[in-house]
Write a structure and sequence with these properties.
471 residues; mainly alpha; two-stranded antiparallel ribbon; 16 helices; 63% helix; 4% strand
């Protein structure tokens, strides 16, 4: 380089600056707020000892204890920041279930026995979802929690497949082949629920991948692979309610992501089912019998379906007795026999998966809507169902916004899919068993997407979690 007089000038020597190094401490600091949430999900892999119980009052597990610590952790952060944690909309939607629960407890014929029910309902539908709403800061945190659910589902599904192949699962049609994971034969819906959550989350993460500026396209391949791996353990769970809810949720996810893509994925799923069940013959006879029983429940129901119909009728009878506030929390077992016909059996048989044969009492109607209606009346049903409906409507309203902004489509599909799955499955099950705490995590994810303005980037210009709080 030369100046105007032709003198050669030497460029000043510059030293290259070292690139910033990100070690494990930076990663830990970044994910610290959601570590308690990940701990709750991870502890659901701990084997369940003893009967699962009815779950309506809470069958205490280490995951339940971790969820209590999660709420305390969130409360400490809120008090330390001295900020208004929730807006009026979020407080109304999440606080609505408190109305029905408290009304049912106050008017209960035995208020003392209702206290465990109050704690359980507040844990699952208010406290833990509210904690997730406050702790999740951005879409990266949301995806981390969603992937942790997928990882848990893969672990439980792997254990379930091994149980089927080795004949160490729960008893089903005289054979110990039912995949139940670590939840045992007293909570046969546990593994099916966890695997279904994982599959719906994986499908949502896959369908939304590549549609935004911050989502890597490799997420699509990982999500599809995980969903394919979870297909077999879901089939081997022999849970008709989980099958129906998963089909409905995944179908709606595909429809929300585009009809052309929905058709392609449906063909792939059908081919996968033919290969695994038809071609390889994995549980083909039992699966076909179980599928056939879905269409026969009205004409020739089996014993489990007969018991369920009888308990549904009993729940309806309790509601007619106390239509406004119900018979009280945890009161269904006490009033069951007085409202049931002689068609109701004394209980269901459970065995296998490391446990001896035992009779498990029928302590709930296995229908969340009827359980709420019988124990909490119209006030409780409108409060709880109204809260869920509001979450679903608000979550779906944000999907077009995310699609136009090309960010967070995967989060929208995960939240909507999980919430739809749960609302459908509540027609066949209730909040029973150790896996119930994962339902609270699901509702927390849906609440964050539906109620926090950072979900669709209304208060930020990048996906780093800065900006305003909940809206």
């Amino acid at each position: 380089m030369a100046d105007a007089r032709g003198t050669l000038l030497l460029a000043p020597r510059t030293e290259s600056l070292p690139l910033p190094q990100h070690d494990w401490r930076d990663t830990l600091r970044r994910v610290a707020p959601v570590l308690p949430v990940l701990a709750v999900v991870a502890l659901l892999a701990v084997p369940v000892a003893g009967p699962a119980g009815d779950g309506s009052a809470g069958s205490g597990t280490v995951a339940d204890a971790a969820s209590a610590l999660l709420v305390v952790f969130c409360l400490v952060r809120v008090l330390r920041d001295r900020a208004r944690p929730l807006t009026r909309t979020a407080a109304l939607v999440l606080g609505l279930p408190v109305l029905g629960v408290c009304a049912a407890a106050i008017t209960s014929y035995d208020p003392v026995s209702s206290l465990p029910g109050i704690a359980r309902y507040l844990q699952i539908f208010v406290l833990v979802p509210g904690a997730l709403l406050l702790l999740i800061r951005n879409r990266r945190d949301f995806r981390l929690v969603a992937w942790s659910m997928v990882a848990l589902a893969l672990l439980q599904g792997l254990i379930g497949v091994v149980q089927y192949l080795t004949g160490t699962g729960a008893s089903y049609m005289g054979e110990d082949v039912r995949a139940v994971g670590t939840f045992g034969p007293t909570d046969v819906m546990g593994m099916a629920t966890v695997v279904s959550y994982g599959m719906v989350a994986a499908v949502g993460l896959a369908l939304g991948a590549g549609s935004g500026r911050t989502v890597p396209r490799k997420q699509r391949n990982a999500g599809l692979c995980c969903a394919a791996l979870l297909f077999l353990p879901l089939v081997l769970s022999f849970s008709r309610g989980a099958w129906i809810a998963t089909v409905v949720a995944v179908t709606l996810q595909l429809a929300l992501s585009g009809l052309r893509r929905a058709a392609r994925v449906a063909l792939v799923a059908a081919a996968l089912g033919v290969v695994l069940v038809g071609g390889l013959g994995i549980g083909s006879q039992m699966v076909s019998d179980r599928l056939g029983s879905i269409t026969e429940v009205a004409e020739a129901p089996d014993r489990s379906v007969t018991d369920r119909y009888t308990m549904w009728a009993a729940a309806a009878g309790m509601w007619r007795t106390d239509p406004v506030t119900g018979v009280g929390l945890k009161a269904f077992p006490a009033y069951r026999d007085s409202h049931s016909s002689i068609a109701l059996s004394s209980g269901s048989d459970t065995a296998g998966a490391g446990m001896i044969f035992q009779r498990q009492p029928l302590l709930s109607p296995h229908n969340m809507y009827l359980l709420i209606l019988s124990e909490q009346g119209l006030v409780g049903l409108l409060s709880l169902a109204g809260s869920w409906a509001a979450l679903l409507v608000l979550a779906l309203r944000r999907l077009p916004v995310a699609r136009r902004g090309r960010r967070g489509v995967d989060c929208a599909l995960v939240a909507a899919g999980l919430l739809i799955w749960q609302l459908v499955d509540f027609g066949y099950a209730d909040i029973g068993g150790p896996s119930t705490v994962l339902t609270a995590v699901l509702l927390g994810l849906a609440a964050w997407w539906a109620l926090d303005r950072r979900a669709v980037g209304q208060a930020i210009h990048r996906d780093d979690g800065s900006g305003a709080g909940a809206a």
